[in-house]
Write a structure and sequence with these properties.
This protein is an all-alpha fold. 72% of the residues lie in helices and 0% in strands. It is built from twelve helices and no strands. Helix 5 packs across helix 6 and helix 6 packs antiparallel against helix 7. The longest helix has 45 residues. The protein is globular, with a radius of gyration of 18 Å. The chain starts with 5 loop residues before the first helix and ends in a 7-residue tail after the last helix.
């Protein structure tokens, strides 16, 4: 096997999709009343490293199944070896832990270590089981709390919003190849409604902050809900794949809605990732 090209690793880790994870720690930080400045700016990049690690581990764990269902992926196509994928996952996990330590010190590490363990546990143990969506939701909720420093209780609602959204999207994503059960699509749609409520609820700094939060939350609900409603009507694999992709991108306006209650500027920065992520997804699929 020849050495993998950079584009093969880009596809392995779904690199552009990491734009949808940058806002996790921003939302958690805003909910906790902390500013994302100085060394804390490293925390979103810690999230990216963990996300990429999870994608590499996902393909390593699914390599036999992908050989049948998705032979075009880097491992079954022979472009990246299983050992290289596993090594990439391990190296990126180490990078995520290192960036968390530099950006948030001990308080961040108290979340980063469980987050790293959860990522590995999801990909290697829980993903093919009924507990898979819950395990993935735990990963994303912890990622929000990574930005909260020692104020994890203050960011609990924000983490719950992201976690509930992730639960619905992950459950629906199990039907990307063979189609989904309509009840699963309905549950995902309901989860998006709960996530919207959690995102816009709670105190906001000013009425302007509240208005921007509700606007972003409404945008999230419409963007994601429309695609999931389509999956309820037609739970075929193609429609489910579109709903899953939309759900992944929908994380951005959800994060923006949470952040806007405390920082409109932070919400604007988070929201700026959406058009870029959608454009790049045409070249590298986020799923």
């Amino acid at each position: 096997m020849k050495s993998p090209a950079l584009k093969d690793y880009v596809q392995l880790v779904r690199a552009p999709a990491a734009l949808t994870v940058l806002g996790d720690t921003v939302a958690g930080s805003a909910a906790a009343g902390l500013r994302m400045t100085g060394r804390r700016l490293l925390l979103p990049f810690s999230s990216v490293a963990f996300y990429w690690a999870g994608m590499a581990l996902n393909d390593w764990a699914d390599r036999k199944l992908d050989a049948v269902e998705r032979p075009e992926r880097p491992i079954p196509s022979g472009r990246v070896s299983p050992g290289a994928a596993l090594g990439t996952g391990a190296a990126l996990t180490g990078a995520g832990l290192g960036l968390a330590a530099l950006g948030g010190g001990r308080s961040a590490m108290r979340v980063a270590v469980p987050l790293a363990v959860s990522v590995w546990a999801y990909d290697t143990v829980f993903k093919p089981t009924p507990a898979g969506p819950v395990a993935m939701a735990v990963c994303r909720a912890l990622d929000v709390l990574l930005g909260a420093g020692g104020e994890t209780r203050r960011a609990a609602t924000a983490a719950a919003a992201v976690g509930v959204h992730t639960l619905g999207v992950t459950a629906l994503s199990t039907g990307e190849v063979h189609g989904a059960n309509p009840n699963t699509a309905r549950a995902a749609l309901a989860a998006s409604g709960v996530a919207t409520t959690l995102a816009v609820s709670g105190p906001a700094c000013t009425r302007w902050n509240r208005l921007v939060s509700v606007a972003a939350g409404s945008g999230y609900a419409g963007f994601v809900g429309r695609a999931q409603a389509d999956a309820v009507r037609d739970p075929s694999a193609k429609v489910v794949r579109n709903a899953t992709k939309t759900g992944i991108h929908g994380m951005v306006p959800l994060q923006a809605s949470i952040a806007a209650k405390h920082s409109v500027f932070g919400a604007a920065l988070v929201a700026a990732a959406l058009p870029i992520a959608r454009r790049l997804s045409r070249k590298v699929s986020p799923t």
